[in-house]
Fold these 2 entries.
Entry 1:
Amino acid sequence: MMPDLDASLTLCTYCPKLCRHTCPVSNAEARETVIPGAKMATMRLARLGKLESDVESTASLYACTGCGACSEVCLHGVTPGRHLFTGRADAERTGHGHPALAGLPDRVRAHAEASARAAREVVPPHRFQPSAEVALLPGCDDPEATATTLTVCDRIGAEYVGVADVSLGCGGYPLLAGGFPDAFRLHAEALARQLQGYSRVVVPCPACVWAMRVEYPAHGVPLRPEVLHTSEFLAQFIERLPVAAAARPAAAAFYHDPCYLGRQLGIYDAPRRLLERAFPGGVREFSRTRGESECSGGGGVLPLTMPATADAITARRLEEVHEAGATEVITACATCKRRLTRDGVTARDLVDVLAEATRPA
Amino acid sequence: MRATRGAELAPALRSLTAPDRVSTTPPDRLAYARDLWPRGMLGLKTGQAPAHPPDVVVWPTSTAEVQAIVRLAVENRVPIVPFGAGSGVCGGTLPLAGGMVVDLKRMRRLVNLDRASLTATFEAGILGEHLEHELARRGYTLGHFPSSIMCSTLGGWLAARSAGQCSTRYGKIEDMVRSVELVTGTGEVIDTTGSHGLGADFDQLLIGSEGTLGIFTRAVVAIRPAPEARILRGFSMPRVAAGCEAIRRVMQRGLRPSVVRLYDEIDTLMARSSAAKEEKAAAESEDPEERAVAGWLGLLGSEQGKRMRDGLRRRLVGAALGASVGRMRVLNRAADALLPRLSGGCLLIVGCEGDRPLAEAEARATFREIERAGGKDLGPGPGERWLRHRYDVSFKLSKMFQAGAFADTMEVAVSWDRLLDLYRAVREALAPLCFVMAHFSHAYADGCSIYFSFAAAAGDDQALAEERYDAIWRTALAASTSVGATISHHHGVGLSKAAYMPAEHGESMAIFRALKRVLDPHGILNPGKMGL
């Protein structure tokens, strides 16, 4: 059974640093202050009233991408990433939130609304349906992906898939990660109302899939439709995908497991099965893959709070790509795609690959 | 928090390194004020601030930066504590005099892999798990698997003369090193590459110095191809003495199994208990081998026997967590009296690895010797289970503290002729004070190490807990040294055993002090440690 918050904080405080090697922030910073145990110990001190009341003292609570790598190796079942989001909420409530997150609720709302509008610019109006069996939720990090996913759906005979007629193109994950649970709940309620007319919603962002599946109910927000990640939905049609001819060098591209898709939702096989069928030559695995996969640095609003550290995490993830002389990474998350496109490497989303594979000759 | 002289060096340190690689913030200073010395962890319960935070923390990225930092410290007579990952259990990285902590973890590269010579050059700050991963993905292994592999660095291993779980085959870290690079307390760089084959072995003078003679910055280590075969086996030995005799025979015959671990009756009882939770299915298995393991685990046999074993285990753990000191002696004595009859023997885990034909031949010979000493073959199950869970025991530490107790371990070694005396002396001495169990590992042709684990109630009174903790250690080390054992096998000396160094080393301590005067004439390196 998963320990509650108080037990988790105590277990981590006394733990002999057994998960530190997995923490992307800790590995990038090489700083004892930001190993998972120390971050949890800081949160415990704050709750005991033994922490200095200042922003500096609570800064380490923000040194986490929520990637869940530490939980993967924890025999106690502690989830520091999730608990630290609560620690951030505590800090925010006492006026010691991270300065870079000031006004985040307004920014997230504006961004989510802009994303929903952006989707309308790339998707024909008739595909926006107020109710449908299956609807795509426009993603906030990559509006083009909505149109691309729709194209793939059309080509594999799932023309009935529409786009959710919503004003918010985001599940609200950044609000939760930033320590704004009330704003998150309000966002969730608003989006849940707009999604009433759908049976299933296909979401491109793994972090928002996680938020909608796990955190909406935990925050008392019922959600009518079943929430699926794009890879889960498309894997149901795998037989309709063309079988790739191995026309290019074998294993030229690496596959990167998004943390929220893999560790948090347990979805490892769906994207691999799709790629195995549709991507010529197949993909190459990182030496740390699946549950051991290293973070791309994009989660937990780290690019906002610790941008240099987020960049160092991304650079670390790409070391193996450079070492192999490869230039391409495929992933299933718009945030990971954006993070991993740098230093001569191009990251592509799974749906981009599938669109290419299904393109009419 | 009080600002001190070391903090005044921050601007200079920033210009020597980088602005974001120097910190004087209270959170960073507090994070480097503790390591994993259990005595220091007693204060965590109440959120007590640690007594000795450093003034400044700096993260160098090159040997040249380490040199520059040391020279700055010398000029200003500011102490330096080299820091790996802070997994030491003897207080070896506590900044007793404040000053600077030099964290090496940003020096973590695999610098060179020499496939022809089977050596690898690593910077000292690489975490053990990362080092082994870098080698493993290229088809090699260092063969060094300390239980701290997730939270310790190569530099820390060198500083404290670390031993891994496969030391019987691969040796301790000092046996794996081919050369080291170290920055002395004057800022000079010593690189021992090419100095071997004649004269003194300078590597061995420096390894184990725990940051008092210099700061390790890189090392060349011997590597091996990842083993083609790994053959693991469990044996049930009738008593501890028979198990020790089996190991002695194996080692003195020249065999070098990778894993040799003999658990005493209490440790065996604990191992059986946790294994049983996982492997109940084995009891219902049709497979005779799995049934044999289940039988040994106590899943088969009389209900009464199972109930008694389980009851005893619960009482022992309960005693550790809450018994008065007076009751502890009674419980330990009861365990001594009952366990030989209840435990079904002592578990011995043995493994051989390497090229398949060689590993198989070595395993055959090893297993034969163990059977000659009275060992009953339990098949591969217990060994494979050990391999799957070999790092799990460390998770129990936080559970103990959470339950209001404390736990610690003492690893000491002695020659074979006094090994059982050591075992009995420490157990008897500690019986009134704490719950104690032991396993035997890190075996050699001439002796063996015993790893004592002890636990006691801490209560809410920190001063009382510290008093009890200190009494346990005083008693344990007195008993250990009374039979001529070492004060440590691989955890190092640090602060907790510093007072025992003169007695341990005798005249050699003068040589150590002389080395200190030469390599660290201003005494800035890790002051207050190792009895210097």
Entry 2:
Amino acid sequence: MLYREAGQFKTTYAADQQLFPIRQDRIGVITLLLVAFLGVPLFASEYWFSAILIPFLIFALAALGLNVLTGYAGQLSLGSAAFMAVGAYAAYNFQLRIEGIPILVSFALAGLTAAGVGILFGLPSLRIKGFYLAVATLAAQFFIVWCLTKFPWLSNNSSSGVISTQKLIIFGHELTTPVEKYLLVLSIVVVMALAAKNMVRSSTGRAWMAVRDMDVAASVIGIKLMPTKLLAFAVSSFYCGVAGALYAFCYLGSVEPDGFSLEMSFKILFMIIIGGVGSIMGSFLGAAFILLLPIFLDVALPFLAGLFGLPFSSATVSHIQITVFGALIMFFLIVEPHGLARLWQIAKEKLRLWPFPH
Amino acid sequence: MNFFLEVLIGGLLSGVMYALVALGFVMIYKASGVFNFAQGAMVYLAALSVVGCIEQGAPLWLAIILAFIIMTLFGIATEKFVLRKLVNQPPIALFMATIGLAFFIEGIAPMVFGSDPRALELGIVDEPLPWVMDNWNMVISKFDLVAAGVAGVLVATLALFFQYTRIGRALRAVADDHQAALSIGIPLQHIWAIVWGVAGFVALVAGMMWGARNGVQFALTFTALKALPVLILGGFTSVPGAIIGGLIIGASEKLAEIYIPPVMQDLFGGNFGGIEGWFPYVLALLFLLVRPEGLFGEKHIDRV
């Protein structure tokens, strides 16, 4: 009843091709943005900003990047954390070495640097396919982290490559409180998410999907594989790079290369599996799920232990966490291989007919 | 020259250890087309269950048998509760499920058997062979030689098993073509259960070797990361490929670790150790650019 598109006629091309063609979707998105930009800063506590909301947005952005590559272009990558590391270190170096460069410009340049590195490591995808490629992207993961640790120039000669990020100054105003950082991250993420949503429905996005579904067929119908695949790597790494820069500047403030571990790459991969491979919204849902689950288990397990009188050590809790995590991944793949985004789609289909399904 | 040979032989022998893990990957990939990322975790589980059983007072032989039973049951359970439900899903979904499986094992195994690092005593000492030491002045570990011998026996057994037994033939048929195998009456799901059992056995052997060498600890799961470049170098579907790939990776990695960092130090200054972590991957990657299906992998012909 509420969610019904009947009667919404499109009379212009612009109306027909808009990003959210259904009015209720538009209202929903605008409400969500208003809540995120105005509502949340009013009510959320500092803990929420710095421990949940900021990392959520950053990881959602990284997941979005991986989703472009894996979900849309079909190239499985296990190196997204390394591209985040490239972004973080590039942003740091641009700030350090170019006098007076605006922070947003250095974020963008960091993204471009990551994109360049991404293209380099994407080159093998022209020859190698499937799992061979997935293993090959591990080369990026290990090599980049090693480089950042071993070349002291990249971390301005700090020991073991730890960097402390510079101040966040935007238009002469220094961002110090979590709320301000949150708003900065949110604005960047919203802009980039909308850009991604636009990109995947453009001819580029359709070419990606054709390559994903079958690259030989795609090349037969005239899609040039090389630019298409490399563009996917570039865009994906750009997103991961910006996410990495935000991770360093807005979330942690001080990062080391080993922080961008293989585990983090897997975490980002899980986000898109659970959220939905090949879905923009899925990246956000997945990021929320993967980040909230450990926090939830942290709270719930000791509570359950107290309830049943079981003595849980902190080691046991972390083991149970990993176990539940793994089990949930398998469970999700079995029950809903298309992820949370698919559940939302089903809900939408149901809502269309509700409350009279016949 | 002696030093070079010593490094080379040491590398070849450690390559055999990598090949042991890679074998498990190959087994499962060959028979069911699943890229089993959990193989490293299975190695960990196998080593832990051996140590766990010994701690409960079982002698070594009994512990090994018990661990084998655990691994087999685990393999069958995996097939029944995870993979069977994912039939007809794209390979990428199966791959991700095995990553989930890896996490699952990494969480549950230490809960059952305890998480502290422990030693596994197999009765083989890790000392240099005195004879080689005296004559050629090279340090060749006895333990590594035994490990190489075990790997050789394992490969020979597997090869015979595949070649001459009824189950082995069925396995090869399934690996060749699932549908054709089904249509001539081979029970696919039994075969998969057997494959997972055999992979569990391979993991057990690898786990014991690695566990005896480095201690039974969480780091055993990282053996999978050592085996992956071996795998892509040798080809996913080839047992000899896993062995040869292991030898190439082991030898080149050790040689690179000795000879490359000094060169880089001269060029850039600073300390460039630890290239073992990425060198095998880059080597395998460069190799793949020439032969995209690995050394012995099946050439894939795309049909539209």
